[in-house]
Amino acid sequence: MLSTHRKLTRVAGLVFAAAFVFAACSGTGAGASLRTSAGDMAALEAAAKAEGNLTTIALPHDWCNYGEMLTSFTTKYGIKINELNPAGSSGQELDAIKANKGNTGPQAPDVIDVGLGFAPQAKGQEPTAAASAQTPGPAEPLITPYKVATWDTIPASAKDADGYWYGDYYGVMAFETDTSKVKNVPKDWADLLKPEYKGQVALSGNPTKSNQAISAVWASGFPGGGSLDNAAPGLDFFKKLQDAGNFVPVIASKSTLASGETPIKITWTYNGLADKDSLAGNPAVEVAVPTSGRFGGMYIQAVSKYAPHPNAARLWMEYLYSDAGQNIWLKGYCNPIRYEDMVAKGTVDTAAQAKLPDTKGVVLPTLDQITKATGVITKGWPTVVGVTVPDK
To answer: 253: Cβ–Cβ under 8 A, 6 or more apart, which residues?
Structure first.
């Protein structure tokens, strides 16, 4: 923290902090990235508190324990959080930035949490097929660089070198099943094709827009010849699932599972396990990681280039990537990106660590593989599978 003899008066200090932090962080080039030090943190916190608000988007409270993350951030810093479209997809997050570039009101997100496949479009590179299908047109930078204090402990393979985006956590694709309605719980992808699952299997998103749904389609094809470099077999699998009458073309959620509309939900491990906890046996839920085709997916964080509250946005990032924030994600059954560093330092929450499911053999795709697979799946879904999954 800043030493006492260097502190300004409260009013002057807030003005100075806001000007200092915003000037240091607001550029879009790599050189504008701020490497946060202890002194910077004091100025950042003061500036963020002066803004007094933070707007997030697409953060369901039961997704990766975001409910606790949001509440604890407000408790710690006294900054109010405006939550937009909790059930939104990665594509909708980027659309919200585009639609509100000149808006400083409550509809403009300050920060985003999107699938890794949406990183190129967010940075202003060539958009993925999933993103461009929703908002065609030239790519433009939607995010601005910022490097958190714990930057060096984030694996190089999980971050943009210039600081535009960085991985936050990952999960593994799994089957969440209502055991009160499904007698035999599916254990592998091939099981989903059995006649006993007619009208029971659903994705947790629109497979032309949602990173989670795209990842599920991709993973389903692994046992049939698919790989990190070949996503097409996943489309073939879902064509079979659709032809068998087993696929339900709605976006599955905890409520659709509990109501019986989608008794088998294909989702990330952390979402399924969070549902199991919150439903508390009503109905009973089992979460199974498939025995083959174990597929992991990483999400990324970034600050909007047009953030109305840029300092609060950066303070939010600092909190997420602190040991406290990483352990909150871990409590939500997510594998936080700084996990190995925290294990080495002895700062990991061991009780939460013990609850992670067995995911031995999981594969994690690179950004290039995701970009290619996303194009294959989003372009091929309407023609190969031929069924629309309406947005909520």
So the answer is: 87, 204, 262, 265
